[in-house]
């Protein structure tokens, strides 16, 4: 590997300093791709060079740090690149994963909307492999317009996905001067067509565990050269779907039970463990665990979206912050993750149905508010979050005890990654007990200005984080920062911990190890616990678990004993006596461990704990009874659920899950008529987990919440198909009308597909007492009867292709729907027209024609014309000719837009088109230009040439320019193409913006709003907000239309780095005097800039003093690569309506 691209540590050119200050200069080398066993020379820096780089880069980074902390660079860009995950081992070495495949060899579904329905149908990794091989052919790759010839064979296809490899590096500070000076590639060779990015890393017991979906890898250095030359997959089947990028394997951590834990985002998991058991969670994120050899595998929790990292606190509780779904108004969720929990998220709530014209835009997650902390009426099957929290959580850490200082004890630390260092950083928070779970206590932001990814504690007691630098794409460089206290309040304890972590515990006596079970730092406690387990020290651990020892000593002893029970070294009874301990936490831990090792004979001893004074003890005792499937406990669990009265969501979860695991279904079904509302709710949750047809009986409940929860259980996920008819019949009742219930009843009838189900939809739509939006949905669902969407109309789950005989629905619709064309509501009339047209109900032609000729609403008449075209082209011809002369321009526009679907002699309409192009409104002219495409192209050359010459002369109004250039672009005439090139040359000095200059005017504001809110590729509201609705990574858009010109907005969309919003980006200015100022732009006017520098000082710089200005690369992607020109035009039109009033 070549050395860092500078000679020594001398910066001979101020531009280099500018680039480093800007976080955009790649001061790293290119890493060659080699196999695992092929040694690559390490990078070694001299001490002076490492220190000089660190100081220079730190001075160029404008970071805000907590007043008690100090930030320093530990590893510079010359040692690592594009870092994702970080693990600091017991010797102070950093193991870092580097991604080479991101966005070039792995895909983000937001850039491939046409793949969505295919991706959502996948059920395992092999489905994805087959899709990629079938889809990425030379022809399709050329159509995608992106270079992909990575293997140099001059062919772009799926074989190019076999080149780029994920990698892992070991980085060290060899001379212990506080600056890393050594980097060694230790693992590579992860490059199948289905390989994701390397998102998880852990070094322990001389094994390197590396999470690179679809596998969790175990690697070993067999010859002592520091390079991992042996690898095996201990678990396979991760990343089922092509989904959002960054939802990879992550969070790899050693649990207090001696098992590996890790997670995968909502791209899902479907795999088989070593016993042959199949685990299938293809549409949701999961946390899994297993022994280091892959045995004893299980899915620990599910329904997560993308936790990235999660941590254990001192008592073995798993805490994380789960990423949100990037929906406007949504927030990330702080979660307490317990065994068997369902957090509620599904990937089918992200994409698939929302780009399907045969479906709707109902979003279960948002419309039913599952992302919020618990509230009355929230879905009961989920375990709700503690609270909503910071954006883009990635790295996470719990203070093990001696990190930073005393004031930081019991704090959790989480990275906020927003793609923009100015809006990212690290937060610290605390929790407090609340029933069987936790409540939020306090928090503070301790660092901003660094775009961190991984986060870990060093053996020295400092915090370390990897730095992505800026944006979302890989860039070939990266860093590691060190965050530490200014005043060492725990210097002695930290030094002791560092020494113990590096020590060989094999030489310590049992007594010494027992003493260390109570150490202040949980890393030392766990190391001691594992050492005693390795010795199979049953008596030592048993004695250490008894009263008289510290609580931490006893808990780690219990955990160690449970490990030995799982290894069959000792019998289960060793844990039993602790169920009666006076310390509630000891009782809770004993119950948890008994369930964990499935001590089946402990049931009778666990049952009394369901009435314990501690909700936490009740929770783990209930969990244990479920895990040991103790049938005699059913009545006691039901009694617990009744006493809980649905108040503690964790006890509700534990009880419902325990009943489902025990599987004695009759007592659960019997709760249908119980007077306790809480028990009926718990019964529905239990039956949902069992997918029991008995759920149908709960639809008769008199409580609307219970009926709605039952509807969710029957319809959603894999569904309970035998209960669908009963759910569909809920449309006939009028007592309950809430949207979540009725939408599922509508959907159930569509799925059942019988004539009675069809009639239920029609009757519901015709009943004016029903909510309008749901009447519309019933009509829309009926319109898809012949060929329904392949994904569910409610939860978006893939249901497969269904095709039905059209005759029955055409007859029934023809008999029942025309009366709705006289409904008082225009929206109902329009949806009825669409449904009749989609079903091909030709018997309704007369009624449709009547609407076209007599309805007083222009939009309804336009819809009627579109329906008429779909039903009867010949009759539509005469109507279009008449409507082209209609007095209302809105109606004429529809006629123009339907020309493409009707065979009309061009000569019959050319006069009308010319008249409209001369005298019509802008909307009409746009539609008329679009209609020209349907005319013989050789006949419109002269007309196009004339209009293009007028365009070049500046005489074509702005709203028509894109439409004109689009129709001209379809014409092959050389003169026409020459005129288009001339137009581009007029604006050539505008750079890339020149290619979009015609998008300035003429957009549809309503369509633009849809782009802003709903476009899954652009994701505008992920970073920007309107009236507080959206993200914070970018500036709010509330008054952008009054503050900025169309030209400014266009340039910001096409070249996002051209302009910086104050507070949202880094700027460097070189002054006439020769010095430079760099930092976060705070404000700017015509005369000066205010820049916040690395010392957190605001520096005012007069523009007259500036010789050169460089804006940092924006984290916002260029919209020209994502949106179509019409979408950009529409978006600009909408943004210009945002004037600062209530939007």
Fold and architecture overview:
The chain has 1143 residues and is an alpha+beta fold. 35% of the residues lie in helices and 17% in strands. It is built from 39 helices and 35 strands. Helix 15 runs antiparallel to helix 16, helix 32 (941-952) packs parallel to helix 34 and helix 38 (1046-1054) packs across helix 39.
Which properties best describe this structure?
single chain; Neuraminidase; Leucine-rich Repeat Variant; 35 strands; alpha+beta; five-stranded antiparallel sheet; globular
Low-confidence stretches: 1-35
Q: Any idea what the CATH architecture of the domain at 14-106 and 162-354 and 370-485 is? A: 6 Propeller
Biggest sheet features: 5 strands, antiparallel
Task: Indicate the proportion of strand residues.
Answer: 15-25%
List the helices and strands and how they pair.
Layout: H1 14-21, E1 43-44, H2 47-59, E2 64-65, E3 69-75, E4 83-88, E5 94-98, H3 116-121, H4 125-135, H5 138-144, E6 166-172, E7 182-190, E8 198-204, E9 207-212, E10 215-220, E11 230-236, E12 250-254, E13 260-264, E14 269-272, E15 278-281, E16 285-290, E17 298-304, E18 310-312, E19 318-322, E20 332-337, H6 364-367, E21 387-389, E22 393-398, E23 412-416, E24 425-434, E25 437-448, E26 452-457, E27 463-467, E28 479-485, H7 491-502, H8 510-516, H9 522-534, H10 538-544, H11 551-566, H12 584-596, H13 603-606, H14 615-627, H15 634-644, H16 649-662, H17 665-669, H18 677-690, H19 704-715, H20 724-728, H21 739-752, H22 755-766, H23 772-783, H24 806-816, H25 826-839, H26 845-854, H27 858-871, H28 873-883, H29 889-898, H30 906-919, H31 922-932, H32 941-952, H33 958-969, H34 974-986, H35 1005-1014, H36 1020-1023, E29 1025-1026, E30 1029-1030, H37 1040-1043, H38 1046-1054, E31 1066-1071, E32 1076-1084, E33 1088-1092, E34 1098-1102, E35 1106-1111, H39 1125-1135
Antiparallel strand pairs: 1-7, 2-25, 3-28, 4-5, 5-6, 6-7, 8-9, 9-10, 10-11, 12-13, 13-16, 14-15, 16-17, 18-19, 19-20, 20-21, 22-23, 23-24, 24-25, 26-27, 27-28, 29-30, 31-32, 31-35, 32-33, 33-34
Helix pairs in contact: 8-9, 9-11, 10-11, 11-12, 12-14, 14-16, 15-16, 15-18, 16-18, 18-19, 19-21, 21-22, 21-23, 22-23, 22-24, 23-25, 25-27, 26-27, 27-28, 27-29, 29-31, 30-31, 31-33, 32-33, 32-34, 35-39, 38-39
